[in-house]
Write a structure and sequence with these properties.
Helix content is about 15%, strand content about 30%. It is built from 2 helices and 6 strands. A hairpin with a 2-residue loop joins strand 5 and strand 6. The longest helix is centred in the N-terminal third of the chain and has 13 residues. The termini are far apart. The model has no long low-confidence stretch (mean pLDDT about 95).
Length: about 120
C-alpha cells in the first residue's frame, strides 16, 4: 500500500475517532456485482471481523443489501481501485464500522452488531 493511501486512511479514521485497521494487500473482500454500475447509488460498505484471508469488508451499491447466497463475490482488495476507488480511504475503518456514500453525501457510523458473526 502506498504512503499516500495509508495517510488518507489514517486521516479518515481519525476524523471519526476510530483506530486505523488497514487491511493487508492480498486479502479478499466481498463485492456485489452491482459495484460496477456507477449509476446505482448509494455505495455501501460494512466490516465484520476478518477471517483467514479476508478483510471482513463487504461492498455493494443500492438501497438494499442482497439476500441471495451469491450476492457477494470474493475480490482481492488490490482490484478495488479499478471498480470503486472512492471506498479506498474508508478501508482502514476497523471491524464494526459502516459507510454510505452518494454524490455530496457521506455517512460513517459504528454498528456493534457487525461484530456478532
Amino acid at each position: 500500500m502506498n504512503d499516500l493511501i495509508l495517510s488518507a486512511q489514517i486521516q479518515l479514521t481519525a476524523r471519526f475517532g476510530a483506530v486505523p485497521a488497514p487491511p493487508s494487500y492480498g486479502v479478499k473482500l466481498g463485492v456485489a456485482e452491482n459495484v460496477r454500475s456507477r449509476d446505482v447509488l448509494p455505495l455501501n460498505g460494512l466490516r465484520h471481523p476478518a477471517a483467514t484471508g479476508t478483510s471482513g469488508w463487504f461492498i455493494w451499491r443500492g438501497e438494499e443489501i442482497g439476500t441471495v447466497h451469491d450476492f457477494f463475490v470474493p475480490l482481492h482488495i488490490e482490484h478495488l481501485d479499478s471498480l470503486c476507488p472512492e471506498v479506498i480511504p474508508y478501508l482502514a475503518l476497523p471491524p464494526g464500522w459502516r459507510f454510505l456514500l452518494a454524490p455530496g453525501y457521506e455517512d460513517v457510523w459504528y454498528d456493534d452488531s457487525l461484530l456478532d458473526v
